[in-house]
Specification:
Length: 486
């Protein structure tokens, strides 16, 4: 730690926030998604679409038309007013490029006046409002001009943004944000300790303990809408049997994986499904897979899968499974080794194979695995659940993996047709989906991941427990500028 003594303070008297990011790709993603550009709507922590550039919206024609009303006071960074006709022009540019569920059914989009955008759909699709959150209002003819709280500074040496004093939700408290790219999260943590930056976008799990209790920093951990599953390829003859998949779910100790594999930086998945537990329509599961290795052994014995003697180079086991895992982060190897030991205790030989990211994506798409271990997105809404767990056959839009699993297709299609305004339909569909994942197990959903950020206390970030604290960065300010309370 002697090499991490702070140098000159990173904070500037004019309110500049220097942010350490993992490479320029992460920095650009943050700039674009949180600071520079916006969608018509946003998705809150509970998965509800909320107003942003749009003030409100309403379904018509039994879900085949969505009418969206645009705020009258939104301007681009160059002063251009954002009208409905200009919004339609940008939407037409963006839809062909968008990798988002909910847009495939859009037949046409039109402006009926200066404030109203109307989407015409070929079929009902309740995912459309959430898709509009990811459809950023950026004109291809002006790619560096957005409507967000910060505008980009042309700079060939780095990524920088200054506050937009005309931002319709209020003037940002920070005057300037500069991004400093680092090769790894650990390197950005070192930059924070040295005072070269005053925020680290991501602290790797091995470094969090060094910052805890440090007087100079605010530690901001939060459970993210990403989960770690052990996913099954049900084309494997053994895994095609649901009683085997249930037995594997019973054999896995999620608490041990969170405490040892994830170093306590995660949250056990209490239910065996990928639905974001903070979703507004989430309901408590009545049935859950709990750690019970004895029950797992009984299930496997009843399935006619006894433990057979080992041979040269192969352990005594009921059967052998291959498991590919993401090898570029130590986290997944730790979890994989724990899974290997836990499954060996019930007579399953889990053979591990580490693969890199590009190879992982290719093999998931082709279904070239018995099982795999990786981090998947749930998102705050249910679109990502559809993308990962609907089979490629008959699915509209991109599907992220090819496991041979079709057990949830009917419920997922029903969920997609439900609209947030029909709350009971959404709740029932999510309840039925979660029950389906319990009855016909496609994976063991192990844990939800935790992301830890750190900010120098020279900045007042508001309520540190705010789950949307990062999305509300435009409200941050220098701590010295905070009005004194009486």
């Amino acid at each position: 730690m002697a090499g991490c003594v702070a140098s000159t303070p990173a904070a500037e008297p004019d309110g500049t926030l220097r942010v350490g990011a993992r490479g320029t790709a992460q920095a650009r993603a943050v700039l674009r998604s949180f600071l520079f550009a916006e969608g018509l709507v946003a998705i809150d922590r509970q998965g509800r679409p909320t107003p942003r550039i749009a003030t409100d919206w309403a379904w018509q024609d039994k879900g085949r038309t969505l009418r969206v009303n645009i705020r009258p006071d939104v301007r681009f960074h160059d002063g251009t007013a954002l009208t409905a006709p200009l919004s339609v022009d940008i939407i037409r540019q963006q839809i062909p490029k968008a990798d988002t569920l909910g847009l495939e059914a859009v037949d046409s989009v039109e402006a009926t006046d200066q404030r109203t955008v109307v989407f015409h759909l070929s079929r009902p699709d309740g995912f459309l409002p959430a898709a509009l959150a990811g459809l950023l209002m950026v004109d291809d003819r002006k790619p560096n001009i957005g409507t967000g709280p910060f505008r980009l500074v042309p700079n060939t040496t780095g990524l920088e943004a200054v506050r937009n004093p005309s931002y319709y939700r209020g003037v940002p408290g920070i005057s300037r944000i500069q991004f400093v790219p680092y090769a790894t999260p650990r390197a950005s943590w070192v930059g924070l300790m040295r005072g070269d930056v005053n925020m680290a976008l991501e602290i790797n799990k091995e470094s969090v303990e060094f910052l805890e209790g440090a007087a100079r920093f605010q530690i901001l951990p939060s459970i993210q809408p990403f989960y770690v599953p052990l996913v099954f390829n049900v084309r494997n003859p053994v895994l095609a049997r649901v009683e085997v998949r249930r037995a594997i779910a019973d054999a896995i100790d999620r608490d041990e994986i969170v405490s040892q594999g994830m170093r306590g930086r995660g949250q056990r998945a209490d239910a065996n499904d990928p639905v974001w537990p903070n979703h507004w329509a989430y309901n408590r599961a009545t049935q859950q897979h709990t750690f019970n290795p004895n029950a797992a052994r009984v299930r496997l014995d009843a399935a006619g899968l006894p433990v057979r003697p080992g041979t040269a180079g192969r352990m005594a086991s009921r059967f052998q499974l291959n498991c590919i895992f993401f090898s570029e982060e130590p986290l997944y190897e730790r979890i994989a080794l724990l899974l290997q030991r836990q499954l060996a205790a019930v007579g399953i030989d889990l053979v591990l194979e580490g693969v890199k990211g590009d190879e992982m994506v290719k093999r998931l798409g082709k279904g070239e695995f018995d099982s795999y271990l990786f981090q998947l997105a749930s998102g705050r809404d249910t679109g990502w659940t559809y993308r990962f767990w609907h089979s490629p056959n008959g699915a509209l839009g991109p599907v992220m993996q090819n496991t041979g699993y079709r057990g949830a297709d009917a419920v997922l299609d029903r969920l997609r047709q439900a609209r947030d305004e029909d709350e009971d339909d959404v709740r029932i569909a999510i309840r039925d989906l979660r029950q389906r994942f319990y009855d016909d197990v496609p994976a063991v959903f192990i844990a939800w991941t935790q992301l830890t950020r750190a900010v120098d206390k020279q900045f007042d970030v508001g309520d540190p427990s705010d789950p949307d604290i990062f999305a509300n960065m435009w409200r941050w300010q220098l701590a010295s500028t905070k009005p004194a309370s009486r």
